[in-house]
Amino acid sequence: MSYLRNAWTVAAWANELEPGKLLARTLLDEPLVFYRDAAGQPQALLDRCPHRFAPLSMGRLCDGGASVQCPYHGLRFDGSGACVHNPHGDGRVPAAARVRSYPVVERWSAIWIWMGDLACADAALIPDFSFNDPAHWAVGTGSMVVDAPYELEVDNILDLSHIEFMHPLFASEAVRRAEVTCEQDGDTVWCKRFMADDREVPDFIRQVFQVNEGPVDRWLHVRWNAPASMALWAGGVAGGRPTEQGIVSQQAHCFTPESRERTRYFYSIAFPRAMGPMAEELAGQSVAALRGPFENEDKPIVEAVGRRMGGAALFDLKPVLLPGDAAAVRARRLLHAMIEKERA
Ligand code: FES
Ligand SMILES: [Fe+2]
What we know:
By secondary structure, the protein is an alpha+beta fold. It folds into two domains: 119 residues, 3-layer Sandwich (Rieske Iron-sulfur Protein), CATH 2.102.10; 213 residues, Naphthalene 1,2-dioxygenase Alpha Subunit, Chain A, domain 1 (Alpha-Beta Complex), CATH 3.90.380.10. Helix content is 22%, strand content 33%. It has six helices and 18 strands. The strands form four sheets. A seven-stranded antiparallel β-sheet has the order 12-18-17-16-15-14-13. The model has no long low-confidence stretch (mean pLDDT 95). The site of FE2/S2 (inorganic) cluster has 9 residues, from loops.
């Protein structure tokens, strides 16, 4: 299956893009170089000089970010991909000296990239992750590389019935027994899991939701947007209390394929700045606490699943379907349809 190109996807967390530095990253099988220009705005270019194809990411930024200098023979390119300096001959810039540039937008603590048709690159299409707006939220961010197709990561987040079996820190039978609904709103898919009256609440969950004793009503709402940008609201309140009184943790789980077999996973957790200095501390601590299960529990299983599937398409292997699969199957069908439409 090919990639969905006409969609915004996360290329990096904003804090990965340090002023004065070049960041090399392969996405959708294309080598890219990212940097901040003289105004601090993110830029993305194909990481391949049009002269003798040296990676621009091995070069350097010039004039405070106004251009990138190729490490090999010194051609310089600006953020639009135009060659702005040729140190050779009479200095005339050959017409073909141009590198592909990609629309990028810094929004909600992330750098979003559009790798499709330029005419359709409307920033209004970036899915809403306003809970990661650094002006109002302290955002803890993390990322990792997973050696598996990105669709398997989408399946993993849309079907959280695996929590009981995979994650001792959050495990409780209630998650599996939850009332689960799958909803579709346009091109957005939701999986909503409500765990009423959970009585075997793990300590970690009690701490997060600040319910020291008695049953807890909990919920996990996951939203999917193509190709693999997901938001997760994990809420909890003392059993029987209105859900509006609960505490909700807001997380991003965004996946961008590097290749068909390798995925870059961006995750975050946000706390309102209204909490004061504690918010920053909590964001840092929580993202560190999540890293363990994501790296040591989800990643090895998802990678092993990918190996067992051996590159076959999911439905060709005729998977057994369980109730928790509804949202993941819906999202996958929608994604396939979008890719087919784009190719047509
Ligand atoms: S390869 Fe870039 S200037 Fe020669
Ligand atoms: Fe998990």
